[in-house]
Design a protein that fits this description.
- The chain has 236 residues and is of the alpha/beta class.
- It has one domain: Glutaconate Coenzyme A-transferase, CATH 3.40.1080.
- It is 20% helix and 27% strand.
- It is built from six helices and twelve strands.
- The protein starts with a strand and ends in a 19-residue tail after the last strand.
- 39% of the residues are buried.
C-alpha cells in the first residue's frame, strides 16, 4: 500500500481540488482548524466552492482566507458572526448561506458519514429553518426532516496520527473533526505530530485510519484568539 503521508499541504491536496467541489473543514471558531490545508486550498485557486463547516473563519484567519480570495459560492454553517466579508457578500447576493442549528449541522455530517440519507429533528420546526422541508408528526410532536451531508474532500485537524491515519484529537479540537473525517469521499488530515505505528493506545483513537486517505504534518501553528474579553486588573 502506498504511503498516506505527504510532505506538505499543497501536495496533500494535489489532484483533489477543482472548481465547484464541496469541501468540509473541521474546527470550531479557530480551534482545531486545518490551517495549513486551508491555506493550500486558497493557493489551489479552485473556485465556486461549497464549504461546510461550523463557521467561515474570522478576519485574516481560517476559511476567511478562501472566502477573501473569491473562491466560495455557498456556505453551510451554524455561526457566521465574526466574518464581515461574508456578511457583506451575503447581503449583496454574492454568496449563498444555508444556516443550520449547530446540533443539526453536526448530526447532518454524522449521518452523511454513516450512510444515513435523512433524519427527523424537532429543532427548527415552526421557524425559517423548516421552510421548504418535509415535516412529520411522531408521538404528538412535529419534526423537520434534514438530509445527511457528504463532501468531495474533508479537511480535518488532529493532534497525533500514526502512518496508518489513526487520529487523536486534543481537547476542544475534538469538535466537528471526527464526524467530518467520516463524511468526506477523500479525507485529508493535518496533524501536529506523527508517531510510529503501534504507539497510539487503541482505546484512545478517535478516528480510525480507514477513514483517512492522506496525512500531512502541519507547520507554524499560532493559537489565535478570536475575541479578547479581558478587563483591567483591579488595583489593590
Amino acid at each position: 500500500m502506498s504511503s498516506k503521508i505527504y510532505p506538505d499541504a499543497a501536495s496533500a491536496l494535489a489532484g483533489l481540488t477543482a472548481d465547484g467541489i464541496t469541501v468540509m473543514s473541521g474546527g470550531f471558531g479557530l480551534c482545531g482548524i486545518p490551517e495549513n490545508l486551508i491555506t493550500a486550498l486558497r493557493d489551489s485557486g479552485a473556485k465556486n466552492l461549497t464549504v461546510i463547516g461550523n463557521n467561515v473563519g474570522c478576519d485574516e484567519h481560517g476559511m476567511w482566507l478562501v472566502l477573501a480570495n473569491n473562491q466560495i459560492k455557498k456556505v453551510l454553517a451554524s455561526y457566521v458572526g465574526e466574518n464581515k466579508i461574508l456578511e457583506t457578500r451575503f447581503m449583496n447576493g454574492e454568496v449563498e448561506i444555508e444556516f443550520n442549528p449547530q446540533g443539526t449541522l453536526a448530526e447532518r455530517i454524522r449521518a452523511g458519514g454513516a450512510g444515513i440519507p435523512a433524519f427527523y429533528t424537532r429543532t427548527g420546526y415552526g421557524t425559517a429553518v423548516a421552510e421548504g422541508k418535509e415535516t412529520r408528526q411522531f408521538n404528538g410532536e412535529w419534526y423537520v426532516m434534514e438530509t445527511g451531508l457528504t463532501a468531495d474532500i474533508a479537511l480535518v485537524k488532529a493532534w497525533k496520527a500514526d502512518p496508518e491515519g489513526n487520529l487523536v484529537y486534543r481537547k476542544t479540537a475534538r469538535n466537528f473533526n471526527p464526524m467530518m473525517a467520516t463524511a468526506g469521499r477523500v479525507t485529508v488530515a493535518e496533524v501536529e505530530e506523527l508517531v510510529p505505528a503501534g504507539s497510539l493506545d487503541p482505546d484512545q483513537i478517535h478516528t480510525p485510519g480507514i477513514y483517512v486517505q492522506r496525512l500531512v504534518v502541519g507547520k507554524h501553528y499560532v493559537k489565535h484568539i478570536e475575541r479578547r474579553t479581558t478587563r483591567p486588573r483591579e488595583k489593590n
